[in-house]
Write a structure and sequence with these properties.
- About 65% of the residues lie in helices and about 0% in strands.
- The chain is an all-alpha fold and about 240 residues long.
- Among the domains are: about 100 residues, no CATH class; about 70 residues, no CATH class.
- Helix 1 packs across helix 2 and helix 2 runs antiparallel to helix 3.
- The N terminus is likely disordered.
- Its main location: membrane.
- One of its GO terms (cellular component) is membrane.
- One of its GO terms (biological process) is lipid biosynthetic process.
- This is Lathosterol oxidase isoform X3.
- GO terms for molecular function: iron ion binding; oxidoreductase activity.
Amino acid sequence: MTIYTDCAMDHVLNIADSSIFTPHVYPASWSEEGALRQIVSLWLVTNLGAVLLFLGCGALNFYYVFDHKLMMHPLFLKNQVKQEIELSIISIFWMSFPTVAIFFWEVQGNSKLFDNISESSLGWPGVFLSIAGLLFFTDMCIYWIHRFLHHKSIYKAVYLSLFVFVNIWTISIHDGDYRIPGPLICLINGAAHHVDHHLFFNYNYGQYFTLWDRIGGSYRHPSALMGKGPHDHIPKLMAEAAHTQ
């Protein structure tokens, strides 16, 4: 198990590696110290943690704090709760990318975090000053980002972009082109993986990643990458056809 430099996300990553990722998710050949693995792990932990936190706190708030009489208001949509949950989870996905970049920067030892107040040159005044600065800075950023995202052209651009991406991806995993960067073969559910889904039926159900197939026990390493795929059978069939003529 890798021991990272002492900061908040290091402890989270250590726990995730020792209990889940190393024994159950990643192949043994993929080192815990690898930058790509750390980024992927941080992305998974960030998204899963944020979604669980959102659903847990949201459910408690909805059932014990929220005034359900508001749902009788004419502007309250019939499926508004469902729509807001879906939109929030999609937002978490996109916001996780800059968040993970900061976490990775921290894990790499670039953080100015400290464990004891005595380690800070500013002492307790510096702690309170940093809290006030964080609130002011994030309020400013959220204001301008929120205002930008409310521009009418942004909604149409994001919707169309995701629609195009999903369709291109769906086509690409059926195109018979098995090229995937080596380190990503165990993560990305590409055409080689999806071909085995069609050939063997009960494997590689995933759309983009192999994570859930690994967790669900349905992951199968692509036979095409082991020299046993459809392309490898074509020369044999051609040779047999030539021999019978």
